[in-house]
Amino acid sequence: MILELIIAGIVFIVAYGYLINRTRGLPPGPPPLPLLGNALSLGEPMDHTFLKWSKQYGPVFTVWMPGPVVVIADHQTLQDTIVKQGDLFGDRALPINQLKMLADGPYGLVFCGNDVWKEQRRFALHSLKDIGFLSASLQESAKTYAQQIVADWKKEGKEGRNVDVTENIMYGVANLIWQLTFGRTLGFKDPLFNKVEEIIHRELRSDTL
Question: Counting Cβ atoms within 10 Å, is residue 181 exposed (0-12), middle (13-18) or buried (19+)?
């Protein structure tokens, strides 16, 4: 009897792993375990694992973490879906109960996926484009900041110092926002950066107390 239960359990796990994607209409992917999904297969760096799976299952595959997540691992496919057909692929699974507690429902630019969200998204994109978002000059500025960030990392690495990746990236993003808002940029070591960061942290702490 016990042996029969063990065999039945093994058959169920194997059948579940190989049939769940097909029965749910999902792209192929690594066979998941019940309840755990593919969590036990993500031991190495995730990007290396996804690259290996993309070679095995194709540029679009499903990973269970433990719910199903469709991964697009090909640049051209990503352009054809998310960029060119963003309205069709822009919806997402939403934690409805949590959103009702926090915001009285799935509203806003981040969590909403209905017509209200689409209208707000279009308005936000048009407004950002009007002030220079995605313009050629802003792209050049982003490249300049990226090069400066990498140069700083190399310099700090050669000097044997610990490299603070978060701080440098934060300065680059903040400078882009500063340029859009005020039409000027700041040096990476400008003390105004620290002052603004201090104010933001203080306000965030006061909101959570």
Answer: exposed
- Taking the C-alpha atoms of residue 61 and residue 52, their distance in angstroms, rounded to an integer, is 11
Spatial CA neighbour of 166 closest among 149, 179, 154, 180: 149
DSSP classification of residue 37? B
Structure tokens, 196: 């603004």
Asked if residue 209 has pLDDT above 50, the reply is no
Do 66 and 35 touch, CB atoms closer than 8 A? Answer: yes
> 182-203 as b/e, with b when 16 or more CB fall inside 10 Å?
eeeebebeeeebeeeeeeeeee
- CA-derived radius of gyration, the chain: 23
pLDDT tens digits, one per residue of 185-205: 777 667 777 787 788 777 766
| 66 C-beta neighbours (distance < 10 Å), count | 14
**pLDDT tops 50 at residue 208:** no
Within 10 A of 64 (CB to CB), how many other CB atoms are there?
A: 23
Write out the H or E segment, with its range, that includes residue 70: strand 68-72
Q: Which range has the top average pLDDT, 23-27, 57-61, 138-142? A: 57-61
CB 81 within 8 A of CB 89: yes
Does the pTM surpass 0.70? The reply is: no
Q: Determine the distance from the C-alpha atom of residue 107 to the mean position of all C-alpha atoms in its chain, rounded to a whole number.
A: 20
Judge contact between 178 and 186, C-beta under 8 A: yes
